[in-house]
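Schema walk-through. Below, the input block comes first and the output block second. Nothing else is stored per chain. Lengths vary across the set, and this one has 390 residues.
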Amino acid sequence: MLRRSNLITWLACGTFLTTSLAISTTTFRQATADDAQTTAPVESTEDAIEVPEGTDAEVLQRFLKTLGRMRAEDPTPAGFRKHFRKLLVALGTVLQREIDPETAQLTVQMMSQCYDIISQFGDRAAAEQKQTFINELKQSDRPMLATQGRILDVESQISSLDPGNAEAVIEMVNQVVKVLEDRPLTNAHASLAYGAMTAIEQTNDGELAVSAAKAFGDALRSSDDPALVSLAATMEGSARRINLKGQPIEVAGKTVTGEDFNVEQWKGKVVLVDFWATWCGPCVQAMPELVDLYEKYHDQGLEIVGISLDDSRPQLEEFLHQKQLPWPTLFHDGAGQGGQDHPLASYYGVSSIPTAFLVNREGKVVANDLYGPALSEAVAELVEGKGKSE
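--- output ---
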């Protein structure tokens, strides 16, 4: 699935370093155990990366961006370990300076990612070294670094969390709430809250999701950053979505051609609510299957409504003109925010697409996590009267 191209995307992807790290990890994920090592190599100063002098934020952030684009000279597991340890040395040099909070945050995030990648490429010492790094940050007398250390510490706990351990999940929520007491709140705090909410979704505990979303949302709304305030609404929407099965769905708005739409006009019908966008490859690839479902079952009571998260009306209109989709498509100009901020996406916490809600003839949601053959089978059962009523 693809993430929405707004704050959620930033939170899901981290800093600009993540793209190059992800490519590297995918390409060389199959590093053999024989090539793994248990201790970090001693870093040579002969090929060390030259770090700009001074503390100018613009200069240093431009340097950080350059680091994120650097590629390993030796595309082997050992070569990648060496490459990212070189980055760590350069980043550590930056972090030792009295730099501004934003540069410090970016530097810490990149160092954390470097440790993760080195570990994935077979250095079994990297995970322990990352924890040592986190502990040192937590003990720093520089407030920004101490805050980043606390955030990374909780993030590490979330990454290893067992969704089936209710006590551990609740403790994690409490720790996130405590970290969100920091002021000022930053993107790192938002990323932590979003990661925690994602973990909570895996528990399928609707009551916990509601209480956590409220606690996280109350904290984020205290920020002056509109993006963090928007994230609060999205997380509360996620809790609403988790509790949606067996409940009636609310879908109303304007179609791309300007008509009013309300799903209540389809009472007694089986309804598929499809969140999608033209820029989403998997969404576009799924369209022929949805068209087949519509053509097969429409006369028996199936309706589909698309909710476009596009931010370009002309692009959407051109796509619809070419594909001639036989169902209505809702679009929201969003007062300058773009279609990606469709109120229904926020209301139901839809942060990745495609996402489809399947609604029975009683108007209640029976599924919001079906795709491919499973979705086709569920539609057939409902239309033919063999599916569960709730």
